[in-house]
Amino acid sequence: MKAPPPYEPASRDERAALAPAVGDPRTWPVSSWPDPQPLPEGLAPVAPFDYAMLPDRLRPWVQDVADRMQCPPDFVAVPMVAAAGNLIGRRCAIRPQAWSDWQEFPNLWGCIVGRPGMMKSPAMMAALAPVVRLEARALEEWTASQGQWRAEAEIAKARAEARKGEATKALRKNPDALVDVASFCTPDPDEAPILRRYTVASATVEALAEKLIENPRGLLVVRDELPGWLAGLDREDAAELRAFLMTGWNGKDGWTFDRIGRGHRRVPAVCLGVIGGAQPGPLGEYLRAAMRGGASDDGMLARFGLLVWPETGGKWKNVDRIPDGPAKAAAFAVFDELEALDPLARGAEQEDGEGPPFLRFTPEALEVFTDWRTDFEAGLRSGDLFPALESHLAKYRKLVPALALVFHLADGHSGPVGFASTLRALHWGTYLETHARRCYGVAQSGEADTARRILERIAKGDLQREGFGSRDVWRPGWAGLADQKRVADGLELLTELGHLENWQEPTRTKPKTLYVVNPKALPLTSAKH
User: Mapping DSSP to helix (H, G, I), strand (E, B) and coil, where does residue 54 land?
Assistant: First the structure.
């Protein structure tokens, strides 16, 4: 085989002729370059959980559980709030503006992050205990009604058979006798009772759709370890289930499917909440895959607005006491009231008697929410956020007003959503943003170490600021930079954070990828540990 000719760079004139409209970044004025963002440094600090963020009637029970289990209160509060929101589901929406028809439902997605043995699962199960009790009660009622329905169906069938026998006997005696045609019609039994479902663990698209048809309020998906489940949804054969779950996040869109044996089926509105736990390692791997633009990069994890990774240090103490009975009874009563919620009786509006009822903010609450949203939208458009975090925070447009609605109804209020509930929701938004920054920052930690080493080489003059290729980084075999995949990830992070610009330099054959250093970058400073 004939060896390929050696690489020969194109001339300056040839590069100019082949360059795209944006031009060679080496010719850009300094003012056109973005300000580079700092590399992530270890675990970002997070805001501690403030019990004042909880509705008054849920707060004592969360405090009691967290104290007895010696776990972060976040591990109890997040699943409880998600369960309360999902219990409301599609029965009541919030319209965050004074006049528009923009509305959100409080079906929430949450994830609690912690190392193994940090009491994630026990705390989550304690928080979901009110829902478990509702499920047990629903099953008991369904079992009783199922037996009654079967008995009534058999009695109706026996009566029909008896009438048919009498009519047959009369016709044998006199073929011209008048007979009631209804005697020969088998009566349709009343529709079988439907089991009210609150949670699901795992199911196919068809099974989930059938359950949602029977439970249009919505369902809560409960998973112990979320990253493994989410990674399984990345498979090609799980694409439909993944799309179905993502559709269920906003609670507004329908879903139609046709199956042999089932025929045409439609879910008027797919409404799903999700709650689960995650360990830092698997979550970081999943996030890194999403941030590299793989199959996970479709906004699935961004929907987990209630994403928390609290500090788990501090001194442990042995707490052995009877649970707080009044606090537990008050919390369970909140869930009983939400189960029996009549939004119209709580002052909700309904357009033309159709569609889900909805509440708006009081004037005072609307003012503070609008002020928050004005600053929030400006931050999203500032260009200071890397894309994955920007996508995550953008979902707070739904999260914050949905939380305000949950707190308003959980505390038993009627009428428009008030200032206190809205202020709590805004407090949650600030608190959750710090946790999101920690999670997404850790996802970059591996790339960050490689990126720092690349900046060190730039600072030493081993890599040219005017442009270098990935091969120039890994081929010398420098410490920490000998792996091609790690180098590619580090270069991608530096590009995403604005330290480098990816440039396809035209040549006579195929473009050569170069990385041009941002003239605003200060590698000597940035490279310091």
Answer: coil
Decide the pairing of beta strands 263-267 and 255-259. antiparallel
Q: Which helix (H) or strand (E) holds 68?
A: helix 59-69
For residue 514, the surrounding DSSP H or E stretch is: strand 512-517
Amino acid present at 385 = L
At 350 the three-state DSSP class reads: coil
C-alpha distances (whole Å) from 100 to each of 103, 254, 419 are 8, 22, 20
Name the packing angle between helices 387-394 and 363-380 (round to 10°).
170
Per-residue pLDDT tens over the stretch 235-286 = 888 889 999 999 999 999 999 877 666 667 889 999 999 999 999 888 887 8
Closest CA to 108 of 8, 250, 203: 250
Q: Cβ atoms within 10 A of the Cβ of 477, count? A: 7
Q: Is-contact 296 246, C-beta < 8 A? A: no
- Residue 231 vs residues 111, 132, 297, 301, 345: alpha-carbon distances, Å: 15, 27, 11, 11, 43
**3-state SS string for 119-173:** CHHHHHHHHCHHHHHHHHHHHHHHHHHHHHHHHHHHHHHHHHHHHHHHHHHHHHH
Token readout for 192 is 């079988």
Q: Is 286 left (phi over 0), alpha (psi -120 to 50) or beta?
A: alpha
The two tokens of residue 177 are: 């006798």
Nearest to 22 by CA among 33, 11, 14, 12: 33
Whole-model pTM? 0.76
User: Which residues are 95's β-sheet partners?
Assistant: 360
